[in-house]
Write a structure and sequence with these properties.
By secondary structure, this protein is an alpha/beta fold. The protein is built from 45 helices and twelve strands.
Length: 894
């Protein structure tokens, strides 16, 4: 923050960003050892070092963290509010200029700073231009309307960056996904794949070529006509280059530019008529009288040749002539002619057109785009048209097309012949330069930054991103259009799954979906093959090795020429597949790691991505992360656990195990005490045969927390939290878990501490009253444990306790287990309860137990108790009756 403050102070006072060396020297003179370069590298997107001048500059994001820049931010807010008002008003142009900025009447220093911020941040603006005198004018972008409801600077910044202002603590965690600064936020507007229109939009260094072509097209004023070809495949930037050529001609005022769109004509006759009409109409709109004369002559010529078919052998459609004549501007020109025109031939009128064109002081440049997107017959018609009008003097035709596609349309069965025919028409041909890897990488990086925005909002593994993109993703893009189609889909996908799936994985999968759709379509059917780890393969039995390998290879083969890239991406996204190709084996223990880090290598995460939604019962990753971070914060953890229902609590416990290796080692008594406090909110019983229940899940998490502590620290922690745990059942679970009991102890404390903890807890248990013990869910287990530690005292205590009806009912209930069974192939689950009479009579002599059971049974209305308790009492009275000889001495029917 000190660096940010000092940089802004320098800019505020001098109007220039401070040089790196000067700033570093100032800090050193004050005894500060801050490295400005290190700060800049760690805070990319907030603060940058401009390489040429080595000056340090702040982004709008950084200015939001500098208190002294508040006046500047207030001015930024004021300007955006003015833009919103102007955008809403249909009576005014939706533009904002440097004069509008001056109209805000700001302090001169703030106005100067805001001028620079608006032009560098550029968030409110679309296309526009800047003059050498410092004035500028930009269209107001429709994204500005997102700020219509902003009431404060903070609201605006939250909208601008998609969520909220970054805090100082979050600064170091905000990592851009590539070297250019992050400029996006929220859900950016979709780039409609429009070609660039201005020199300032050129990212591929094509302005120089455009100016050279513009110079060539406008040279030889007064000379004959000629045709220039701009060639290249779809998506290479032909239209953008045409736009730049037009800009270059307009900038130098060296020619008259006419745009002709060959689309949507119904016949070759209409094409010629539309061509002449378009040229005449566009020339008529120019203030130059010489152009008006050319426009009029072209209009007359079009009306004459329309019914005669002078240019093409098939007759023109006569009804089109009145339509042309009814054009407002051309009709006005005709009306100005006072004398009636004599009847002239098409040849005479054509001669007048040629004479008028030859007299122009600049060349007429006709730009014809998208020739290769027409149908084959339409392409032939347009080429024939160009050939027939190519001799118009002082006229240059610039055609943009894919050479192979046009040649194939001209001669469907003879490509060489089509190329030869094209060469006779086009005198000069220039290929659109191939986009170099470095250029395209820069375009891709900028587009990703804008589409994704602030990566601190997502789970983002920079190393995974780098590996995926270097190994294959980056190579999938060949043109700027490829990049735009890709980045257009990202905002929506991230809005749906950005909180649940690692950002690097989303970016890679979306690249496959957009660029290799056939390969991508095979991912969902191959889900198990892609995500099954080595140990689970034989257990699941659903995808044998040979079949899994075949499914994975099908994904790769479907990529065609991009197969190497697809293979590299699949191996990175789904590490479990590597064993099929001689690589590493990943065991089932990795599934938890992949789930915690939101990698699609875990099948549950892959399902979230493919379905673009959380499956029912699956918790959001954000909630699980909040629970993990709250483990040492009593209030935060208490509030979070209180807000969960029993199913959500169970799911959180399951997901917390994914953080086993990251559990804290200090302050863990908070988590242990609160988790046990909420244990009894978990469901009881089993859902199916293989369900282990939910009551053990607290102990599983607590065990993993305690394993990270030293034995002495575990003993201290247990003693500290025991008074906070409300039940003996849960306290006993914790004490046994850290001790040395067979089948339950994990030996996390010394034997001396384990013995002492047991003795203390058992003493408290045997001293408790019957009412408190009756509330214990694991009562019979507690009594057996007490008897193992203090047999004599336990026997004495039991004689006293069974005299209490509630205690006896609770003891019977805890001795009655629920058994679940299920017939293979059937969904129905059968449940039954079974009372362990032997376990009870081992604690209490059978005669005394039977007598008390009969007394309690007579005193209890079974219709008022739960099914578990009713079944326990029913079976107990049967056992008691059998013991008293009132039934045959056989085991009751169970």
């Amino acid at each position: 923050m000190e660096v940010f403050r000092r940089v802004y102070a320098h800019w505020h006072s001098t109007g220039q960003w401070p040089r790196l060396s000067v700033l570093q020297r100032e800090l050193a003179s004050e005894g500060s050892d801050i490295s400005v370069r290190a700060v800049a590298n760690d805070a990319r997107g907030f603060l940058e070092i401009e390489s040429q001048s080595e000056s340090v500059s702040l982004s709008l994001r950084a200015l939001a963290l500098v208190p002294a820049a508040r006046d500047l931010l207030d001015a930024y807010f004021k300007a955006v509010c003015a833009m919103v008002d102007r955008y809403r008003d249909p009576a005014v142009d939706a533009t904002y200029t440097s004069d509008d900025l001056k109209a805000l009447a700001l302090d001169p220093t703030i106005e100067r700073e805001l001028n620079a911020v608006l032009r560098s941040d550029h968030w409110p603006f679309g296309s526009g231009n800047e003059s050498t005198d410092g004035s500028w004018s930009f269209e107001i972008a429709d994204r500005v309307m997102g700020a219509a409801k902003a009431g404060t600077v903070d609201d605006l910044l939250a909208i601008r960056f998609g969520d909220r202002n970054p805090s100082e603590e979050e600064l170091n965690a905000a990592t851009p996904i590539s070297s250019p600064p992050l400029i996006g936020g929220g859900v950016p507007t979709v780039d409609a794949d429009e070609p660039i229109a201005d020199f300032g939009d050129d990212l591929l260094d094509r302005v120089k070529m455009a100016k050279a072509l513009a110079s060539q097209a406008t040279a030889q004023v007064g000379g004959g006509g000629f045709v220039v070809g701009i060639t290249g495949p779809w998506g290479c930037g032909k239209t953008s280059l045409l736009n730049l050529i037009e800009n270059a001609i307009d900038e130098t005022n060296s020619g008259y530019v006419i745009r002709f769109d060959p689309w949507l004509f119904s016949s070759s006759e209409e094409l010629v008529l539309r061509f002449l009409r378009e040229i005449s109409a566009q020339l008529a709109s120019e203030p130059d009288e010489s152009l008006t004369d050319v426009a009029l002559r072209l209009s007359d010529y079009a009306q004459i040749i329309a019914p005669l078919g002078a240019l093409i052998t098939v007759p023109f459609l006569a009804p089109l002539a009145p339509i042309l004549a009814s054009s407002t501007k051309l009709a006005r020109f005709k009306k100005s002619k006072e004398e009636a025109k004599p009847v002239v031939s098409a040849a005479d009128q054509r001669a007048k057109v040629l004479e008028a064109l030859k007299g122009l002081d600049r060349r007429l440049v006709v730009l014809i785009d998208d020739l290769d997107r027409l149908q084959a017959q339409e392409i032939r018609d347009v080429v024939r048209l160009v050939k027939l009008v190519a001799d118009f003097p002082n006229t240059t035709y610039v055609l943009a097309y894919d050479q192979m596609k046009v040649a194939a349309a001209l001669e469907p069965n003879d490509l060489a012949g089509g190329l030869e025919y094209l060469e006779k028409i086009v005198q000069l041909s220039h290929d659109v330069p191939r986009v170099g890897p470095e250029q395209l990488s820069k375009v891709l990086g900028n587009a990703l930054n804008e589409a994704v925005g602030d990566v601190s909002r997502y789970q983002f593994d920079a190393d995974a991103y780098t590996n995926l993109f270097n190994d294959g993703v980056q190579s999938l893009f060949r043109t700027v259009r490829d990049v735009r189609r890709y980045t257009n889909v990202l905002p929506t996908t991230l809005a749906l799954v950005g909180d649940e799936v690692e950002l690097a994985d989303v970016l890679a999968l979306e690249a496959l979906r957009v660029r290799l759709p056939t390969s991508f379509s095979l991912i969902a059917p191959a889900r198990d093959a892609l995500t099954t780890t080595s140990q689970l393969l034989s257990a699941q039995g659903s995808v044998p090795d040979a079949e899994a390998k075949q499914q994975i290879e099908a994904i790769i083969d479907a990529a065609g020429s991009f197969a190497p890239e697809a293979r590299a991406i699949i191996r990175r996204l789904f590490p479990a597949t590597q064993r099929h190709f001689g690589g590493s084996h990943f065991g089932s223990e990795w599934l938890g790691t992949w789930r915690r880090t939101l990698r699609v290598a875990n099948p549950e995460v892959l399902d979230i991505y493919l379905n673009k939604a959380l499956p029912p019962g699956v918790l959001s990753a954000n909630l699980v992360k909040r629970a993990f971070l709250a483990l040492v914060d009593r209030q935060a953890l208490s509030n979070l656990l209180d807000s969960l229902d029993s199913e959500e609590l169970e799911a959180v416990l399951d997901r917390l195990e994914e953080y086993e290796n990251e559990f804290p080692t200090e302050g863990t008594e908070v988590a242990v005490s609160l988790l046990y406090k909420h244990r009894r909110r978990l469901r009881t019983g089993k859902r199916h045969v293989f369900d282990l229940g939910a009551d053990h899940k607290v102990a599983r998490v607590v065990l993993r927390i305690l394993r990270r502590l030293e034995p002495s620290e575990v003993a201290r922690l247990v003693r500290q939290v025991l008074p906070e745990i409300p039940s003996f059942s849960d306290s006993g679970d914790l004490v046994r878990m850290v001790g040395y009991r067979e089948d339950s102890g994990s030996k996390l404390v010394s034997e001396t501490d384990a013995s002492a903890l047991e003795t203390e807890l058992i003493g408290a248990l045997l001293a408790a009253d019957a009412g408190r013990l009756a509330a214990e869910p694991d009562l019979i287990r507690l009594i057996y444990w007490a008897r193992a530690v203090e047999p004599d005292q336990t026997a004495i205590t039991l004689k006293r306790l069974i005299a209490d009806d509630d205690f006896l009912v609770a003891l019977l209930r805890s001795a009655t287990r629920e058994y679940v069974s299920q017939t293979p192939g059937e969904a129905a689950v059968r449940r039954r309860f079974e009372l362990s009479w032997d376990a009870l009579t081992a604690l209490v002599p059978e005669p005394a137990l039977s007598e008390r059971v009969e007394e309690v049974h007579r005193a209890t209305d079974l219709t008022t108790v739960d099914a578990h308790t009713a079944e326990a009492l029913t079976q107990a009275i049967d056992w008691a009756a059998a013991a008293n000889g009132e039934q045959e001495e056989t085991t009751p029917d169970q």
